[in-house]
TrEMBL record, chain A:
Belongs to the binding-protein-dependent transport system permease family. HisMQ subfamily. Residues 94-395 form the ABC transmembrane type-1 domain. GO terms for molecular function: transmembrane transporter activity. GO terms for biological process: amino acid transport. It comes from Pseudooctadecabacter jejudonensis. The chain crosses the membrane at residues 29-47, 98-120, 132-153, 197-218, 230-251, 271-294, 348-365, 377-398. The gene is glnM_2. This is Putative glutamine ABC transporter permease protein GlnM. It holds the Pfam family BPD_transp_1. Its main location: membrane. Coiled coil: none annotated. InterPro entries: AA_ABC_transptr_permease_3TM, ArtM/GltK/GlnP/TcyL/YhdX-like, MetI-like, MetI-like_sf. Keywords: Amino-acid transport, Cell membrane, Membrane, Transmembrane, Transmembrane helix, Transport. The keyword Transport applies. The keyword Transmembrane helix applies.
UniProtKB/TrEMBL annotation, chain B:
Pfam families: SBP_bac_3 (PF00497). It comes from the Bacteria. GO terms for biological process: amino acid transport. Keywords: Signal, Transport. Belongs to the bacterial solute-binding protein 3 family. The gene is aapJ_2. Residues 1-21 form the signal peptide. SMART domains: PBPb (SM00062). This is General L-amino acid-binding periplasmic protein AapJ. Residues 32-261 form the Solute-binding protein family 3/N-terminal domain. Coiled coil: none annotated. It comes from Pseudooctadecabacter jejudonensis. CDD domains: PBP2_BztA.
Length: 407, 337
């Protein structure tokens, strides 16, 4: 290779062409160009959107959030009436989203755990049954499950009418305390005479948790010193049960049972068919995926671990609980997080069964009554983003805790 | 419908602003009218056994297509739910909305829709099972009510119950077919909607006599076609097509004589309307026979009403407020001059 410019002349002189020809700069140059292009494109998109909205006479504005909503929401976890604002309606919807997401995640995890373990059961029938479950639920779109479950609930369960009259065709179950109707499940509710019961309960739970934690670490110290485990499970459970019962008794509980008055059952807690259908569909569907994750996690634990546990004399259940699952968790948690996120986002299918979640309120009725498509959709997206990121943060923290600490 | 909503948002981002400028030119260049209709409401807009769209609102689409393109069949029907309709209109997905939609102040101003007139004077009613023995809306305290979301009825219902100190349990519904399914499964005691829609729904039940529409009408629901803000000529075309159909009934023009009456009549207004005399069509960029084409294709207002909603149909609605003004109704077309 011949060199026309002698390097000794100006060894560090920078020429513009080096930006592309020199591997030291090329990557950065290309990244800068790509970055600028993307920014320009996004800027054009935003500017065009804004100018289109202006042409339509609908400039971007979030002031509608302070206006009166005017519509009713059937399931309210926070006080809300039609006189409240659109923002309040959106928050009511958000609470409904969170409720179904939490219920769904809990149920799906428990169900998924058992089905995942059943998949690996030495009992061929059980394993095959679990496999059939996984394949059926995993391979049919969630929306179809949701519609099917909702249709089954509304079409097959008795209407409140059926509970009426001298010889009703339907009766309440669990000694007249729970009414299962096609408008939802009515269960007894408990209220307390003591006004500060909620805070006391929270205080008690916090106190007992701290106490249990202290006892556990003491037991651990004792075990590592003497080698003998201290059986704490039963005493702790008993303490919990006794103190909770004492608090409840002191607070004076009043149970109100659902009762058919007028058109509907009144009193008690009303779990609407829309909530039950969405909850079941999300839980059953996601459980299939969680089952596969659990199976993968368990399979990932070295067989030697199980054999070692058996050699130490641990029983099957103990091996699973004390040896296999804690190690499997490290594999299970990361994909589990993304399934929780999926479930939360999938809950936006709620409108298919008339469940008033964030999509139904903010991005549904509010959008329609105010005509603010872009604003409501942007706001809805940021709500979901915030919820998803919060879930990720919490679970990532948990994940970091259970990870193997390499020394 | 979520897809549609996102689609509208994307359209807002990408579409050039000029796309909305002149709807008439767009329609003529396309050779087809994009008409937003109900996803399914018997009498107003539904697909018949052969899969053709038919109904009162659909005939409005056909009339405009005949007036603008000379061909009543040059329509693409875009089925819309109560929630998607205004987004579809404002994003330019449809040329106009003919979907039993109530004309209100905020929709006309804030939602950037322009209503061109009232094709059907309606009011909110309540449909319930006869066996419940309810005779008045005032007996409905505590009832579970099926309600289509994104409608004026949703807001009226809330106000009505609140101002009368009554409570209810709303069951939000997306479409009429869904409402029927819920109502028939007794998931709700009552279905509330525009009285015409209730009559249409009841007509499609297995035993319509087991259901009653309560006597109270709790709101005014003037239903009419709507266009986008910002295109006055298109607003005029759709509005005056509706007026032409109403005037035709008053003047005795029918689908049968629309083609011939202009040559035989002595009435100057009929001659003007049918394009035999003068050229009203050119004022809106249409052909001289625009109204003649529309009336020949779908008939006058009375014919359309009788064909789809009248007492001879299963829906069996009286003309009521929708009779001509000289018969005690409210339908009144301004003069064609």
């Amino acid at each position: 290779m011949t060199m026309n410019s002698t390097p000794t002349e100006s060894p560090d002189a920078f020429r513009v062409s080096q930006l592309l020809s020199d591997t030291r700069y090329r990557a950065k140059t290309l990244q800068t160009i790509a970055g600028v292009l993307i920014m320009l494109f996004l800027g054009w998109l935003a500017a065009n959107t804004l100018s289109n909205l202006n042409t339509l006479g609908k400039p971007l504005s979030f002031s509608f959030l302070g206006d009166k909503a005017g519509y009713d929401i059937n399931q309210r976890l926070i006080p809300y009436t039609a006189e409240d604002t659109h923002l309040r309606a959106a928050l009511t919807g958000l609470m409904n989203t969170l409720v179904v997401a939490v219920l769904g995640c809990l149920t799906a995890t428990i169900l998924g755990l058992f089905i995942g373990i059943a998949r690996l059961s030495p009992n061929a029938g059980l394993a095959r049954l679990a496999r059939v479950y996984v394949e059926i639920f995993r391979n049919v779109p969630l929306l179809l499950w949701l519609l099917l479950i909702f249709a089954l609930l509304t079409e097959t369960l008795p209407a409140p009418d059926a509970f009426r009259g001298e010889d009703p065709s339907a009766t309440l179950i669990f000694s007249d305390s729970v009414a299962v109707t096609n408008r939802g499940v009515f269960v007894p509710s408990i209220s307390f005479n003591q006004p500060r019961f909620g805070w006391l309960l929270l205080g008690l739970i916090a106190g007992l948790s701290v106490l249990a934690g202290l006892l556990r670490s003491a037991a651990k110290r004792h075990q590592s010193k003497t080698g003998r485990p201290v059986a704490l499970g039963l005493p702790i459970l008993a303490t919990w049960a006794l103190s909770l019962m004492a608090l409840v008794y002191w607070a004076g509980p009043t149970v109100s049972y659902p009762e058919l008055r007028g058109f509907n059952f009144r009193d008690g807690i009303h779990l609407r068919t829309s909530l039950v259908a969405l909850w079941l569909a999300l839980a059953l569907y996601t459980a299939a995926f969680i089952a596969e994750i659990v199976r993968a996690g368990i399979t990932a634990v070295n067989k030697g671990q199980k054999e070692a546990a058996a050699a130490l004399g641990l029983r099957g259940g103990q091996t699973m609980r004390l040896v296999v699952l804690p190690q499997a968790l490290r594999v299970i948690i990361p994909p589990l997080i993304s399934n929780y996120l999926n479930l939360t986002k999938n809950s936006s299918l709620a409108i298919a069964v008339g469940y008033m979640d964030l999509t139904g309120t903010l991005m549904g009725i509010t959008l329609n009554q105010t005509g603010r498509e872009l604003e409501t959709v942007l706001l809805g997206m940021s709500f979901y983003l915030a919820v998803s990121i919060s879930i990720s943060l919490v679970l990532n923290w948990y994940n970091a805790r259970v990870q193997l600490r390499e020394r | 419908m979520k897809f549609l909503r996102n689609g509208a948002a994307i359209a807002l981002a990408f579409a050039p602003v000029s796309g909305f400028a002149d709807t008439l030119e767009d329609v003529q260049a396309r050779g087809q009218l994009l008409c937003g209709v109900n996803t399914g409401l018997s009498g107003f807009s539904f697909t018949d056994a052969d899969g053709n769209w038919t109904g009162f609102d659909v005939d409005m689409c056909r009339a405009v297509a005949a007036a603008v393109l000379g061909d009543a069949d040059a329509v693409e029907y875009i089925p819309l739910t109560g929630k998607t309709r205004f987004t579809a209109l404002s994003s330019g997905e449809i040329d106009f909305l003919s979907r039993n939609t109530t004309w209100t102040y905020s929709r006309d101003s804030d939602l950037a829709a322009n209503f061109v007139g009232t094709s059907y004077y309606d009011g909110q009613g309540f449909l319930t099972r006869a066996e419940l023995g309810v005779s008045s809306v005032m007996d409905l305290d505590g009832a579970t009510i099926c309600i289509k979301t994104g409608t004026t009825t949703e807001l009226t219902l809330s106000e009505f119950f609140r101002s009368n100190g009554m409570t209810y349990e709303p069951v939000p519904i997306e479409s009429d077919s869904e409402a029927q399914q819920q109502y028939n499964a007794k998931s709700c005691d009552v279905f509330t909607a525009d009285a015409s829609a209730l009559a249409a729904n009841r007509a499609s039940f297995a035993d319509p006599d087991a259901h009653v529409i309560l006597p109270e009408i709790i709101s005014k629901e003037p239903l009419g076609p709507a266009v986008r803000h910002g295109d006055d000529r298109w607003h005029d075309i759709v509005g005056w097509t509706l007026n032409a159909l109403i005037a035709a009934e008053e003047l005795g023009i029918t689908s049968e004589n629309a083609r011939t009456l202009g040559d035989t009549t002595n009435s100057p207004e009929i001659k003007r309307l049918l394009g035999v005399d003068g050229d009203l069509g050119a004022m809106n960029g249409l052909s001289a026979t625009w109204a003649q084409d529309a009336i020949a294709a779908v008939g006058n207002y009375g014919e359309i009403f009788d064909r789809h909603l009248g007492t001879d149909t299963v829906i069996g609605l009286e003309r009521g407020l929708n009779a001509q003004w000289f018969n005690g109704g409210l339908q009144y077309a301004p003069p064609f001059r």
